[in-house]
Amino acid sequence: MVAVTATTRPPVRRTPLSAIDRLRAGMPQDNRTAWLVALGLMLVAFITRVANLAYPNRLIFDETYYPKDAWSLWHFGYERSWPDGANDLIIQGQTNVWNDGPANAVHPPMGKILIGLGEVLFGMNSFGWRIMAVIFGTLLIGATVLLVRRLARSTMIGAVAGILMICDGLVFTMSRIGLLDIFQAFFIMAGVLAMVVDRDWFRGKLADHLETLPVPDLKGSFGPVIYWRPWRLVAGLMFGCAVATKWNTLYVLAAFCLLTLAWDISARHLAGGGKSAIWGLLRDGIPAFVLQVVVPGIIYLLSYLPWLLSTGGYMRDWGENNPDALSTRLLGKPLASLIAYQINTYNFHTGDYIAEQTHPYATDPWSWPLMVRGIGFDAQNGIQAGQQGCPTDAAEGCLRVINALGTPLLWWIGCVALVLAILWWIGDRDWRFSVPVVGFMSVWLPWFQYDERPLYFFYAILLIPFTVTAVALMLGKLIGPAVTEESPPAARRRRLLGSWAAGIIVALVVLNFAYFWPIYTDGLLTREQWLNRMWFHSWI
């Protein structure tokens, strides 16, 4: 028998948590602080992105498509074709230069509707067609902060995620250009955030049910069927907007629908449902299908309402020209025309025409996480010494570029974090890491089936929020659990060292972003300064 002396502590007997306690969310109670942190980081993001937004004052890269489509959507209800030379005329202030016929738009309308809102409010100019990207890029920062805070149960780790998102070069550049992908990224992250909130909400409802009875657990019964789940509805609305921006959202939606169903079954099992929890595949799955599949479908259809109400949209007359088609007889001419239009768009994306195209910035999906090659959005070469502030001793002159290149250190650390996330999810059964892993893989892996067609690095904008989530959770692991004055010295020392290590990593990412700032903003660089930032020949 071991005697208990002044220097010997008795063993701590931990009372097992009840099912009710384990179902409770355990969220930090600093809600006001969390919102202030999120809003503060969003303010920083907005200021850095809106500065000098109108420069360059022209349509750059794929802005030659979407801002013009957006303008005609708001004026005609459908994308109208533009003549050659329209870009120069638009910069001169002339917008009434479109052709009579429609354009074959190969992406759904939602993102273009949002770009067009900026044009309606601020004019058909470079600021007008970029400002909504700034706003939604800022909202993307906030959604990531709130998601990571909920996963980590820590406002500090949520703030770390926000800082990392602010300091990613790809997120930054995509927030300052009139393309569709930044809208898709926000809607996806907002949808995932709503699903994670729903997970906690549902578990809280199960705990409330047990307390009301009152019983310690379900004792093998299935428990209550909860049809009204408001956060699941929010997720459906957000994913509907994302699908109505770009189709590849469907892969992410499908993956998270399966994950959330697994969360429901796990919650019922934790509540004591036992084998009956498996019935959640049907009893929870059918209501989930309505909110997470039917609702997005309705939102997608509504995004085409202006096209449906028009008479001149691309293929809008298909039903009129094919009155005997089965779809026309069953659904009517407008919906039959829309279905034919969708089939035409699918054939475009998967057909020979797009597969035979080439582009100097085309990349393979396997290379995106490693950032083997970025993409150039704009370039002004051959600026002579003494011009535009170019130093007079710049023997090779100067240039200005906008490179859609992620912050290298963040992306490479992200690769490590994602591997660890897989191990922590599968090995430690830590559900939190399922979110970045499922999110990243559902975005990345589907692209491999299309690797015969030109693909571009900027598509990876959907990867970085999940990458940052993995990095932030990894840093939370590095920092370790909270300590108090009563904690053992070893625990306090570990926390201190972990905090220093995490702080150094975040600081290095910030400095790395600052170093690459000129190539994200069309800044003036001598050729030597530019080459110093092209760490690999493939970046040029």
From TrEMBL:
The chain crosses the membrane at residues 34-55, 127-148, 155-172, 178-197, 251-267, 288-309, 409-426, 456-475, 496-517. It is a multi-pass membrane protein. It is found in: Cell membrane; Endomembrane system. GO terms for molecular function: dolichyl-phosphate-mannose-protein mannosyltransferase activity. It comes from the Bacteria. Its EC number is 2.4.1.-. Residues 42-276 form the ArnT-like N-terminal domain. The keyword Transmembrane applies. It holds the Pfam family PMT. Belongs to the glycosyltransferase 39 family. PANTHER family: DOLICHYL-PHOSPHATE-MANNOSE--PROTEIN MANNOSYLTRANSFERASE, PROTEIN O-MANNOSYL-TRANSFERASE 2. This is Polyprenol-phosphate-mannose--protein mannosyltransferase. It comes from Parenemella sanctibonifatiensis.
